[in-house]
Amino acid sequence: MTNLWEDLETGPNAPETIHAVVECLKGERNKYEYDKDVPGVVLDRVLHSNVHYPNDYGFIPQSYYDDEDPFDVMVLVEDATFPGCIIEARPVALMRMDDDGEQDDKVIAVPAEDPRFDHIEDLGDIPQQELDEIDEFFETYKNLEAGKEVETQGWEDRQAAYDAIEHAQDLYDEQFA
């Protein structure tokens, strides 16, 4: 059985075009995580706060980030896909975030094959309302979990996302190659 984290390439042209493996769905409170030992997507928990994912959320294959997890990616979508769906995506921004003292940044991407997102190429192309909703979600989604503290730390452009993806690929190679 294919392991989506280890066997799937980072992307057909990483960091410009990546694969995003969806775990959590736009509009839902379920926090799914890919379990490489199963391998498959399992329900990790239901968010304690009354918030829902503003877009599909998951990870980038063959990546490893400073929080010792696969690198997180949020893909802007019109409609939710499904857990385990692989989206060919274009990174357009990076959200800096601290999660309980660990750097836990998020790549923001758009589907490469959805013409509704062709005009979004960089941070400045994302509507401010969309950025505000993503920021608000991550600032508050762990508020009701005992002892959890999250701080969003601002937005950076597409090049910062590319650099962070390359960093995550290097960490993956150092740890697992």
TrEMBL record:
Transmembrane segments: none annotated. The keyword Hydrolase applies. GO terms for biological process: phosphate-containing compound metabolic process. It catalyses: diphosphate + H2O = 2 phosphate + H(+). It is found in: Cytoplasm. Its EC number is 3.6.1.1. Mg(2+) 2 binds at D72. Keywords: Cytoplasm, Hydrolase, Magnesium, Metal-binding. Pfam families: Pyrophosphatase. GO terms for molecular function: inorganic diphosphate phosphatase activity; magnesium ion binding. Mg(2+) 1 binds at D67, D72, D104. It is an enzyme of class 3 (hydrolase). Its cofactor is Mg(2+). Substrate binds at K31, R45, Y57, Y141. One of its GO terms (cellular component) is cytoplasm. Homohexamer. Belongs to the PPase family. Catalyzes the hydrolysis of inorganic pyrophosphate (PPi) forming two phosphate ions. This is Inorganic pyrophosphatase.
